[in-house]
Amino acid sequence: MARHTYQTGIIGNCNFLAHVNKNTNIDWMCWPRFDSPFVFGGMLDKNKGGEFSILPASDYTSEQVYAENTNVLRTDITCKNGKYRVTDFAPRFRQYDHFYKPLMLIRKIEPLEGVPRIKVKCSPVCDYGRLPQDKLHGSDYIKFTGCGESMGLSTNIPITYLIDEEYFSLNETKYLLLNYGDVWEGALASTCEQYLRETIEYWRLWIKHSSIALFYQPYVIRSALALKIHQYEDTGAIIAASTTSLPEFPGSGRNWDYRYCWLRDTYYVLTSLNHIGHFEEMERYFNYVTDISFSENDSFRYQPLYGITGKKNLTEEIAEHLDGYMGNKPVRIGNQASEHIQNDIYGQVSISLLPLYTDHRFIYSERKDSNKWINSLLDKIERTIDEHDAGIWEFRNIALMHCYSNLFQWAGCNAAEKMARTIGDKTLEERACALKERAAAHIEACYDPVRKVYTHAVGSPYLDASTLQLIMMNYIDPASQKARDHLAALEKELKTDTGLFYRYIHTDDFGKPKTTFLICAFWYVEALACVGRVDEAIVEFEKLLKYCNHLLLFSEDVDGVDGSQWGNFPQAYSHVGLMNAAYRIAVKLDRPVFL
Questions:
Q1: What is the rounded radius of gyration, in angstroms, for the C-alpha atoms of the chain?
Q2: Which residues form the Trehalase-like N-terminal domain (predicted)?
């Protein structure tokens, strides 16, 4: 059976994201926001998901590449009568004193060879495919309306060809500009060309301003570009993925909506942005997390995840009318995990606030309420430090005293201790230190001295890849025999021959997992580098690179046997894992560029 990979690339401008299939169709696009209903959702239902394709009259082959160092995507179609290119992008560039990032999708169609005959089909839907959009056509545009929304498609293609979905000969460059809200009324061709030039220039300058080492640089560049457009710039939130309900493996029922921001990933995201030197993105994300922190200041606990505007109610519903990806149901809208108890997040928030006090790029002026909200954060840690929770993997019906949760409680207390020291509050410093010791006691209760490994929870025999973080976060001294023993035990049980890593292999709410979680394999690479096994880290890192699709984009899950991509795609945190692993190796190598 052939390896399954996702046949799409993504474009975006930090206002929206779209998936462009190799067959030219816009397979997925939510408008006007990441978490809005889709206007194109063929990825989840070929019939009800709508369509926006540019296809020839005959059989064809397709090649798809990004314009170098950009989020501008080019799809070349070769058919019986010739060859043409579709260039897709979401405009983004500096205009006056701000970034121009309209809700606008631009498609440029140019003939490359011969005179291919093509058909353009544009049929958006609303309310997750329950209704088609109504069409009102003018002389050079189509206006779509439905579900209280409107959008306009402007084009220099004779409008009759689009309305009647007729083939026509492509003998000159054509443009399609889909605009949210109304029909675009400016000069079409010159505007599209100007926006394309300026968008390419913007992305290439953004990469030039990135601090990216030479170690497998093309992969890190693509990961950085992918991560960037998963950030909703208005609030700074970074979503886990732009998709929902792509199964962890076929028939698993593990189909989740990932269009939200998980606090559990804060530490890793901030670390990756810091590594590439993009302070502005880090600051925006930092502000999103701190806004949630202050808004929840008097609340008993944080949620594991929030909407991109900080929304708390993410009620999970089943879209029964949709077929699902390759027939995999259910299709979920919303995520019940927002209601779970997940106690690592208090440490995550504490760590995310630390730069306010320790990173001199922030202009720090002492807040009058610093003692109050650091105390509030420690209150949350103290109330939950002895509590069972759902853990990092969000078990739905299993609660334990998880090692990973207490690791981040420990790290969060370390961060609070440093903040307290900075503001000169000895009482707060002592309180953080005492809580840190309590968290460490729970972690130590997970240690199995016979197998010389930390298990995933107190009183449990099972191993979990999340405990790799004990090494990377220096809870265990990476140079110690204890770190080497712990890593060896995890390798023996969770690592595949192909370099992939299972989160765990014991039965959970849905049975035994059949796919590996890609970020765990990148954590493993980091752990190898930490304990000094750098040559092995490089070998294992190189093994993982083959699990991308044709555009160097990585999924959430990978089949441990055949290497197929599964889970939501592309997964921002898989790319974060790659970036952090590459950085860790590059720092260890520290070679002159000429070697």
A1: 25
A2: 9-155
Lowest mean pLDDT among 39-53, 193-207, 337-351: 337-351
> What is the C-alpha to C-alpha distance for residues 54 and 34, in angstroms, rounded to an integer?
24
Q: Band the pLDDT of 367: cuts 50, 70, 90.
A: low
Task: Note the pLDDT of residue 472.
Answer: 93
Q: Which long-range contacts (CB under 8 A, 24 or more apart) does 469-477 make?
A: 469/404, 469/407, 469/523, 470/403, 470/407, 470/443, 471/527, 471/530, 471/531, 472/523, 472/526, 472/527, 472/530, 473/407, 473/411, 475/407, 475/410, 475/411, 475/440, 475/443
pLDDT at 541 over 80: yes
Residues 6+ apart with CB under 8 A from 331: 44, 244, 245, 255, 318, 319, 322, 324
β-partners of residue 105 are 178
**Cis before 91? omega within 30:** no
The CA-atom distances, in angstroms, between 417 and each of 75, 307, 387 are 53, 30, 22
- Listing DSSP states for 231-261 in one string gives EETTTTEE-S-S-B---SSTT-----B--SE
- The answer for 136, left when phi > 0, alpha when psi is -120 to 50, beta otherwise, is beta
Nearest to 559, CA basis, from 513, 525, 512: 513
End-to-end CA distance of the chain: 42
| DSSP labels, 58-106 | S-EEEEEEEPTTSS-EEEEEEETTEEEEEEEE---EEETTEEE--SEEE
How far is Cα 274 from Cα 361, in angstroms, rounded to an integer? Answer: 11
Interstrand relation of 237-238 and 231-232 (parallel, antiparallel or unpaired): antiparallel
DSSP state of 552: S
Query: CA 582, CA 577: separation in Å to the nearest integer?
Result: 9
Return the structure tokens found at 100. 């121009």
For residue 79, the cross-strand partners are 60, 82
* Cα(386)–Cα(194) distance, integer angstroms: 59
pLDDT digits over 58-105, tens only? 999 999 999 999 999 999 999 999 999 999 999 999 988 889 999 999
- pLDDT of res. 437: 96
Closest to 410 (Cα-Cα) out of 436, 377, 375: 436
Distance CA 467, CA 408 (A): 11
Cis, bond preceding 570 (omega within 30 deg of 0): yes
The b-or-e profile of 401-413 (16+ CB within 10 A means b, else e) is bbbbbbbbbbbbb
Q: Among candidates 146, 125, 143, which has minimal Cα distance to 135?
A: 143
> pLDDT tens digits for 107-117?
999 999 999 99
